[in-house]
Amino acid sequence: MSRVMEPLVVQGDTEARPRPAGLGSYRPRIEPTAVLWFVVVCAFGVIALMPFLWMISTSMKLHGHEFDYPPQWIPHPVQWVNYSDGLTILPFALYFRNTLVITIASTIGAVLSASLVAFGFARLRFPERDALFAVLLATMMLPSVVTLIPTFVLFKALGWVNTFLPLVIPHFTGGAFNVFLIRQYYQTVPYDLDESARIDGAGTFAIWWNIMIPLSGPVLAAVAIFTALFSWNDFMGPLIYLTNPSLKTVSLGLQFFLGQYGAQWNQLMAVSVVMTAPVVLLFFFAQRYFIHGIVMTGMGGR
To answer: What superfamily would CATH give domain 85-296?
Structure first.
């Protein structure tokens, strides 16, 4: 027996409201403004993807056809050999391993050191705390090129040139931007947790490690992504400190395809696609934590 619309009368109610015949009768209302915003976002997304798509297209073209006009988005014939040639012309497997070691070590150092420094600024009370934090933020306005020569002289005196230490150790010293992000997040955590932990006998380090670290997954993920992207794509640091061919990174290896009288654009784009793929996968898998961590750093606090 088919269901029909029956009046539903509620005691004390002067109007009879119809009872829905079933879930199939519900039709969501589509707002024109939402449709417009969706179209605009899709358009900007396509524009942002065009350089990446052109890089993929160029990586599969014949040499000398990279700048054909009109541009050919779908290469014919497809040259998959560009990937094998580009990745074997130099020891890119070694370069990828070096880059991965630097990236992992730098990310661990940045997360641990920045979270510890941010814990001190956010949860501890000591003289001139706010003034020291202002000085820390002021270092963000100092261009890195200003300290380039003194830093190189220091690392050379320490005997760190031609090692990974100049590219890794600075990340173990915090970093103003990372400390700022994590401090803002720490200030959203209730102070009652610290007081309860101290009543139970926990010390300052135990509170940071056992309470603040487990509660700070989103912002720590954001800092880890920022550091990993910087270390993976860094070109200036390896160019200055790494002259041994066995210590080169992928970003230095890409320079090989750019010569004085020409460039192997198809092979350069092929290796660039392989270099970009881990970064894209990292963002897609961690974007929820990344966005949540950035949003939470702007909430509340005292």
So the answer is: MetI-like (1.10.3720.10)
